Structure formats: structure tokens, C-alpha cells
Amino acid sequence: MASEKLAIGLDIGSTSIKLVGLKKQRNRYVLEYFGIKHIPPESIVDGALMNSSVVIKSIQELVKELRVPRKEVAIGINGNSVIIKKLTMPMMSHFELDETIAAEMQQYIPFDAKDVFVDTFILPEGKDEDSAQMDVVLVAAKKEIVNDYMSVVGESGLKPVVVDVDVFAIQNCFHANYGINEKETVALINIGAEVININIIQKGVSQFTRDVHIGGQQFSEEIQKQFNVSFDEAEILKSASHEAQLAPETQKQIQSSLEKIAEQVAGEIQRSLDFYSGTNGDSHLAKVYVSGGAAKTPRLIQAIQNRTRTQTEALHPFKEIHVDSKRFSSHFMEEMGTLGAVAVGLALRRAGDKLY
């Protein structure tokens, strides 16, 4: 049974760690804590912890700076260590489903069964009594990666009570802020530094998920190559690309680099959405919502809208969450808010929650 107490959302990303704490007050969520701590490049690569000590230290510093008294946290994972599959199976009980999946595991995932944690859930819209079939989502995550994340969280002095998957955390965030529209199909695109999480939602239910291994880091790497500067300097140039103090020629070069990568990212997203459309007859997308640090990159949202021919906008993780302007500056929320989508989704979890 799930606890009534919300967990702290701890999003351990490849370039930064985001922490969000919420509380339920009457009929709304209230933001208690929100902070971001950047970590050195390659501390985490494709979801694998390459420098655990840096990650532990960064989590500890973030918790101390924000004065977070709670220890229970929800964390998310993504990348090659996670497999998500939607299956159509004969109608059966949860117990029978678990037995069937265990017996036929090798049909569904490319990992050895002993090396993964497995969870399943039956989609509420996926039960068809007439055909005696049901739609099931299977999630498998490598034990090694999950245990590594739980270990660094534990060594940071916190207690992991939920391990989620980033695409479902973002879906959780979206539902809390935008509700469920029974008539619309939407795409949630979270663009992290290394990975794009894609989740297509119909009637509040996930219909298609995919991780694409390209991300916001590509923008900085392109500027780094063009100007022969360090990665940190490239990040500054990227952020200042629209500012008047840069020489016009420099602005033009940066904009050209950003547009080039924006087209590449938009193209990858379009291919995934086209694949979904090609396998689903009634798959008209009403809107695309973009979150993650790259959501603020100039030209990107417009490039995605142009390539997908679908209305595209930034997802606001705090749209329906009360934010005290005395504690959180409007400038900070404007600049950093889009980074909080995964952490907000995690912060809506409770100990004992199922993923779905």
C-alpha cells in the first residue's frame, strides 16, 4: 500500500541533478524545494555512473543547500538499461501474467532474466472483454544500474523508496499540470543532455515510448567545435547567443550551429513519431510538449513544429503547482523550470507506488 507522504523527487541526470519537494495542501500541490546542481561532464554516461563520488557529493550539497529534512526519495532511470514494451496478451489475472512473463522472458527482452528487475501493468484502456485480450506494459531494468543508483542515493544519506522510469515520471508531471483530455493524443518529448525520452499519450494512457540517443549536449558540442572552446565556454556562448554584447558575426555563427543541431534533433523526433503513426491508424497528434534543458534552446521548438507539422510548445512542470514568489524568484523559475519535469513527476510519487 502506498504511503500518504510524498517522496522527494531526485532526478540524477548526465549533466545535472535536480531535486523537487512538493506537499499536498488542500486541493493543490505546493512547491517546497527546488534546486539544481551541475556535475562535471562524463560523470554519468548513457545512464551509467562513471564517477559515483562526484554524484554523491553533489546530492549531499544540494540537500544541504535546500535544507531538506526528508530522506525518502524517488529516483528515475532511462537509457539502454531500460526496456519498455507494450504487449497484447490473453486476458488473465495479475498472478498469471507474472508467471507467463517469467516463463517467456527471452521473447520480450534482450537481457538475461536474472540480470533485470521486471514490472508489468495492465493498461486500463487495454482490456477488451469481447476479444478476451488485454494490453500490458512490460518494464525491465538492469539490476546493476538500478543498484548503482540506489547505492549512491543511500551513500548520500537518503532513502530511495521508488525507482521510476523517466518517461513515466514526465507523464505523471504532465497529468498533474494539464489533466487528461479524453479526445486528444499528445506527444511528451523530454530532451535531456544525452537522451530524448518520447512518450505518446492517448486518453491518459501511454501508447508508445522510445529513447533516442541524441540530446541537448549536441548543441554545446557543435559550438565547442566551431569556436574551439571548452564545453563550459560553449554552454555560455549558447546561452548568450541572442545577447547584444556578442559580435554580430559571432551571433550569426552560433545561430547557424544551433539551427543545424535543432534540425537534426527535430528529424530524429519526427522519425519516431512517423514510426508510431505508421503502426497506429487513428494516431493523429493534437500537440507536442517539450521539456528538459534543451526546451529553451533557440529555434528548437519551432524546428520540431515544422518537421512534425504539429503544434509544439514548452511543457511547464509547475503550471498548476503553487510557487511562492517570495521563496522562488520568477527569474529562476523562468530559466530553470523546464529542467524540472522529471523531478516533479518523481516528487508526485509515494513509497509503495506502482510505476503506472
Folded structure, characterized:
The protein is α/β, with parallel strands linked by helices and 356 residues long. The protein has eleven helices and 16 strands. The protein has a six-stranded mixed β-sheet, with helices on both faces. Strand 8 (116-128) and strand 9 form a beta hairpin. Helix 5 packs across helix 11 (341-347), helix 6 packs across helix 7 (231-239) and helix 8 runs parallel beside helix 9 (300-308). The longest helix has 32 residues, at 248-279. The mean pLDDT is 89.
Summarize the topology.
Blueprint: E1 8-12, E2 16-25, E3 28-38, E4 44-45, E5 48-49, H1 52-66, E6 72-77, E7 82-90, H2 94-103, H3 105-108, E8 116-128, E9 133-142, H4 143-155, E10 159-165, H5 166-178, E11 185-191, E12 196-202, E13 205-212, H6 217-227, H7 231-239, H8 248-279, E14 287-291, H9 300-308, E15 312-314, E16 321-322, H10 330-336, H11 341-347
Parallel strand pairs: 1-6, 3-16, 6-10, 11-14, 14-15
Antiparallel strand pairs: 1-2, 2-3, 4-5, 7-9, 8-9, 11-12, 12-13
Proportion of helical residues: 25-40%
Structural class: alpha/beta
Order of helices and strands: EEEEEHEEHHEEHEHEEEHHHEHEEHH
Q: Poorly predicted ranges (pLDDT <50, ≥5 residues)? A: none
| Mean pLDDT, all residues | 89
Strand order of the largest sheet: 10-6-1-2-3-16
Counted by DSSP, the helix tally is 11
Percent of residues in β-strands? 25-35%
Give the C-alpha Rg: 20 Å
